[in-house]
């Protein structure tokens, strides 16, 4: 059977859900320039809770997009980094970021027009 994200039972829909999630997009963008520690990710991604960051990182790791490396030190140090598969997403999510920042004014104007109706 060919992947069909319009079919609710197709695994490709789960992949789209993962990579289309706002937190996943922001984690991938943050890791695009190299490995980061958990605290660095939490500091960079304003508004993400510890619970959501942990869930997002686990999901990205499970899907093979992020690696988690524990370093034997005191205190233990954990780094997160994009895999090759994760790096293949960078251009895609950077395009989303570029579109959102370029068209923000237009979207805000459309919202204002809609809300005044």
TrEMBL record:
Residues 10-108 form the HTH hxlR-type domain. Keywords: DNA-binding, Transcription, Transcription regulation. Signal peptide: none annotated. Transmembrane segments: none annotated. Pfam families: HxlR. SUPFAM superfamilies: Winged helix' DNA-binding domain. PROSITE patterns: HTH_HXLR. This is Helix-turn-helix domain-containing protein.
């Amino acid at each position: 059977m060919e992947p069909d994200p319009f079919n609710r039972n197709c695994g490709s829909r789960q992949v789209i859900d993962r990579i289309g999630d706002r937190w996943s997009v922001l984690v991938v963008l943050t890791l695009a320039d190299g490995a980061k520690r958990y605290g660095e990710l939490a500091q960079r991604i304003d508004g993400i809770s510890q619970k959501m960051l942990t869930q997002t990182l686990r999901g990205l790791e499970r899907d093979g997009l992020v690696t988690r490396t524990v370093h034997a030190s005191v205190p233990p140090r954990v780094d997160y980094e994009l895999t090759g598969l994760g790096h293949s997403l960078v251009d895609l999510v950077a395009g989303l970021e570029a579109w959102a920042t370029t068209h923000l004014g237009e979207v805000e104007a459309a919202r204002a027009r809609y809300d005044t109706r």
